[in-house]
Amino acid sequence: MDAEQILAGNRRALAKAITLVESTRAEHRRAADALLDTLLPHTGRSIRIGVSGVPGVGKSTFIEAFGLHLLRQGHRLAVLAVDPSSPVAGGSILGDKTRMERLSREEAAFIRPSPSAGALGGVAHRTRESLLLCEAAGFDVILVETVGVGQSEYEVAELVDFFLVLMLPNAGDELQGIKRGIMELADALVINKSDGESAGLAQRTRQHYQNALHLLRHGSFWAPRVLCCSALENQGIDAVWEMICEYRNEAEACGVLAARRARQNGAWLKRLIAELLEQRFRSDPHVRAELPLLEQQVLRGDLTPRAAARRLLP
Ligand code: GDP
To answer: Is the pTM of this model over 0.85?
Structure first.
């Protein structure tokens, strides 16, 4: 049975299981559900870290440096990606094989590219299940990488314990738009490329963001921090890990970590119910027959959208 092999840390079995949870075929879904039920008692023991940032900020360079640092300390690391922008035909943020080359050769690291967006369910849901599988396989640190655009940050923040946003050393305008929403999600901002001529600017940027975060603080027990690092020169990477360990210890001690995960599971349940209802609705023979006709009538202005919806859902 796959479950035993996964529990034994067999990477091929893990990869196969992730393919199973990513599948949209009904019989695969049933097998995936059964597998997840079996493995559930063996999940939850990792620290789940989200890593976000705009393309080019240095995510893969950072994850490689950070990952190798963790491996040297004896951790086992899984890296998953959420990339809603990846086309169905592939081409995900982790699809490029040259990324994280050294890390991907390590036995204690498991790197999984983003699932392509399918018809059913959000990419983030499948990543959540993949994350549980990685935990069952004994990976004790899980990184979930996402690009710093669009909705994906919110989804990733909903499935991790700690959300880290990589930034570039250039304070100012950039601070205005994005970044407000993201700053509210972030447990830490890490200003990468703090090296060479950018070192001074990075320090000023750090101060800038630290002040901004100070104003934004919403009474949580953790005051989001701003650090500088150079993934390329391997500077400041250890401090990022120390900060996350500190967060974890504090959050565990006061019950915040368990509460955060419980809240996430509650939100996940709600979204799954909505998804399953929609799926059931759309596969109903009456709906399949009527919906295209009703859509036409609505487009022509012969029927109001509400009247059309009521005919399908009396
Ligand atoms: P991603 O698109 O966010 O994954 O970014 P990459 O990790 O691919 O990095 C984009 C570019 O920035 C590459 O040319 C890296 O070598 C460079 N880079 C990444 N981290 C650093 C850093 O700490 N310092 C400097 N100077 N360059 C970096």
So the answer is: yes
